[in-house]
Design a protein that fits this description.
The chain is of the alpha/beta class. The protein folds into 2 domains: 138 residues, no CATH class; 126 residues, Response regulator (Rossmann fold, 3-Layer(aba) Sandwich). It contains 10 helices and 7 strands. The strands form 2 sheets. A 4-stranded parallel beta sheet has the order 5-4-6-7. The protein has a 3-stranded parallel beta sheet with strand order 2-1-3, covered by helices on one side. The longest helix has 22 residues. The radius of gyration is 20 Å and the shape is globular. The protein starts with a strand and ends with a helix. 42% of the residues are buried.
Amino acid sequence: MKWVTRERARVDRIACPWLITRFIDPKPELLFVPAKDVRAVAEREQAIPYDIPDVELGHQGPRCSFDAFIERYELDDPALVALAAIVRGADTDDRTLTPESSGLYAAATGFQATSRDDFDNMARQFPLYDALYEYARLQTASVSPRPRVLFVCLHGAAKSVVAAAHFRRLAAARGLPIDAVATGVEPDAVLAPTAVDGLAGEGLAASPARPRPVTLYDLGRATRVVSFGCEVSLDRGRSADQWDVPAVGDGYRAARDQIAARVERLVSELAAEA
């Protein structure tokens, strides 16, 4: 994927590319352009803009763009949540938010002043973020994120969303502490209305609110991976379960019944393993 932001980066616009590279996109193309050109370049290059006003991956109240990435891509790693606070303090006026924030701001200011360009700045700062992440990981070692099942369909807009919603319902009913996330290989811009309306009729919420791509973090964190006919690259020795079910757009009930039945078997299997 392509990602674009303002040039002359210091804190957030280096932290976010680090997060993209390490946890989100296996082959990111990072673009830095003058602030006035970000939107035009994003449209021309079909790139995702970040850390500019009025975009999803930007500042929201006291929270910075790094926080927005964590929320959008469901990065529930406690170490990343802790690192987000450090970045937030360094990137805003709240430098006392964490003991590390003022130091990160000072270091980032020095790197910005002495780097040839933003790519040189990234190359020099990424090891700093690797070290801060490891520090945060050690500080949060006693806190473990809940296991998760990853559902993947082509557009991340229907089958995976329906499966994740029913998995969350059944897992909660069984007291099984496992989450579920829905993703797409080529995500659509919006969820399929058939899936949203069908789930709503069952009292279930469609999540995420907008389709998102499968990430490095998803693949690394998943206890199980279920694919609806998509190629999913996993580490050696792991494979995705392949589920062949009717298209949700061809009729919610038929697709829902097959998905729910398979999800129920998966929940029972995971409960037995637990």
